[in-house]
Design goal:
five-stranded antiparallel beta sheet, seven-stranded antiparallel beta sheet, 311 residues
């Protein structure tokens, strides 16, 4: 006959409660004996009492036996990452589901999932699995990978080479200054500055200068002069005029009809990284991946995804 222990009793008791809504020590003992365990009433009662305390079960007296049922479930979560040389093992528990990822660090990996009737049980099993991994020389370390949901969204693309990246922003400020010659009321020519400020939606593309993407997504500054990052071309998706003026060095204001000559033009295009809303990644395979910022919980993760592609 098989030797009885706490784990066997707990497993059978949970099985019966999940099936029938409740159980008794007698029911547990009988099923254990049917499965060839050497189970006495006293042993089973002792283990069930231990399980009831540790698992926070509910109980009430019914005739000669206590009737046990599950107590209130937990909302506890667990998310741990372990490595052993070049191998990794990660486990996550949420909403009564265990997700395990394992494989080679920065290499091929597999994912398995298993759902349970109770979150409390999933947490307990996950902790048991962690103990086994630690016995096999896996040690806990911070997980620097992208969140699982993000990795799933880009699965199949992460190792492909990107050949073009287009970033879309809203509320871009486009400021143009031109040195111009104007005529005053006495028909004298003077130097003045024409200033035009617009704002709107813009798309910026990196192709020949695609490595600049690494710089723009790593900068600590949120407000940037986009031309510093050598984009290849841009186009507007809609803009409006905010301000336009022609002023000479004495502060006199002119109308555009007074311009007699345009000397040079300086453009300043100002973006806020928090205002990015889409990234389109084109690969050498001819495939295209469109990513929306609104699918990510914060801008830092979104930028991390963009710079993660090989260019």
């Amino acid at each position: 006959m098989l030797t009885l222990d706490y784990k066997n009793v707990l497993s059978v008791a949970e099985e019966l409660i999940e099936k029938n809504g409740s159980t008794t020590t007698l029911d547990v003992k009988n099923l254990l004996r049917n499965r060839n365990f050497q189970a006495t009433q006293n042993e089973v009662s002792s283990f069930i009492n231990q399980a009831s305390i540790q698992e926070s079960w509910q109980s009430h007296q019914n005739s000669n036996f206590k009737v046990y049922s599950f107590g209130k479930d937990t909302h506890e979560t667990l998310d741990e990452y372990f490595i052993n040389n070049t191998n990794f093992w990660a486990i996550k528990v949420e909403n009564a589901k265990i997700t395990i990822e394992e494989g080679i660090v920065n290499g091929k990996e597999t994912t398995t999932e298993r759902s349970y009737n109770r979150n409390k049980k999933a947490i307990r099993i996950a902790k048991e699995l962690i103990i086994e991994k630690e016995k096999n020389a896996f040690f806990r370390t911070p997980d620097t990978r992208l969140p699982l949901s993000v990795r799933k969204s880009i699965a199949g693309y992460e190792n492909k080479k990107a050949t073009k990246i287009i970033l879309s922003f809203f509320n871009v400020i486009f400021k143009t200054t031109e040195n111009v010659m104007v005529k005053n009321n006495q028909q004298e020519e003077k130097k003045a500055i024409l200033t035009i400020e617009k704002n709107g939606g813009y798309q910026f593309a990196w192709e020949k200068n695609i490595k600049e993407i690494q710089k723009i997504t790593k900068t600590a500054n949120q407000n940037l002069e986009i031309s510093q990052f050598q984009f290849d071309y841009y186009q507007t998706t809609g803009e409006k005029m905010n301000h336009k003026s022609i002023v000479d060095k004495e502060g006199n204001v002119y109308q555009e009809i007074n311009i007699t000559n345009k000397l040079d033009i300086i453009n300043h295009i100002l973006i806020d990284l928090n205002k990015i809303y889409m990234a389109e990644i084109f690969f050498e395979t001819g495939e295209k991946l469109s990513l929306s910022k609104f699918d990510y919980k914060d801008i830092d993760i979104f930028l991390q995804v963009i710079r993660g592609f090989e260019v």
